[in-house]
Amino acid sequence: MSKVPNRRRTAAGLTAAVAVAGAAVLVGAPAAQATVVDVNYACVTKIGPKSAVSPVDIKAVKSGSGYTITMSFEKGVSDSPIELPKGVMTPRAELVLGGAAEGTVKVKGTPNTVAIPPDTPISIGTLTGTFTPKKNGKVTFTAGKLIVHALGMDAAECTPKNNPKPSLELDVTGLAGGGDAPPADDGNGEDDDNGSGTELPKTGPLDSAMALGTLGGTVLLTGAAGVLWLTRRTAR
């Protein structure tokens, strides 16, 4: 007789374990997928063309209604023939958006905290910017143009020449009124309603109240008609 409770306990334990595992899978689902991508930069500098390959890492952290975006470089992409004193070099870059967003996100670094010796690769470090999504969906971030501002001028302008893959794919969710995808394009460049301004039927609380009122009135009239019919039947 003791085997039945044991079986029940075993089944209950198994069910709980499966539930916990399922919850772990849901909680662990990543909202962003980042990949370190090697970017081959071709740079136009004041001392001639330069080129270098640097691994680029892009990350996103939720901040209010948007995201704080960071772009990190593992290697320098150019150097200077002269020493750059502390605080005279500031990098900035553009990240190209794709997927559910278009355009670019501008990120900027901080001035160099130590002097950079001559003929030494300039450390770009980490650049920071802000991305505010307009709709739900997957958004990709790809390394774009990089500019090194030093000694009061843009000393180097670098462009990726190897068509790098996105370094980050961000899954934007939870935006109020944000569709999962852009409206379907019918080929004429206009919205689906062709600019007619036609509104969909409203289903708000007011309309629900009106519908209930109509239903109540119908029931009331039906009840009254039933009473009249019964009265007539009795009178006969």
Question: Would you mind describing this structure in some detail?
Answer:
This protein has helices at 3-27, 205-235, and strands spanning 32-34, 37-45, 48-63, 66-73, 89-99, 104-108, 126-131, 137-150, 153-160, 168-172. By secondary structure, it is of the alpha+beta class. It contains 2 helices and 10 strands. 20% of the residues are buried. Strand 3 (48-63) and strand 4 form a beta hairpin. Strands 1, 2, 3, 4, 5, 6, 7, 8, 9 and 10 form a 10-stranded antiparallel β-sheet that branches. Residues 14-29 and 180-236 have low confidence and may be disordered.
Rg is: 32 Å
Tally of contiguous helical segments: 2
Number of strands: 10
Summed over residues and divided by their number, the pLDDT gives a mean of 74
Largest β-sheet summary: 10 strands, antiparallel
The SSE order reads: HEEEEEEEEEEH
Amino-to-carboxy terminus distance: 73 Å
The low-confidence runs, each spanning 5 or more residues with pLDDT under 50, are 14-29, 180-236
List keywords for this structure.
single chain; 236 residues; alpha+beta; 10-stranded antiparallel beta sheet; elongated; disordered C terminus
Task: Tell me briefly what this model is.
With 236 residues, the chain is an alpha+beta fold.
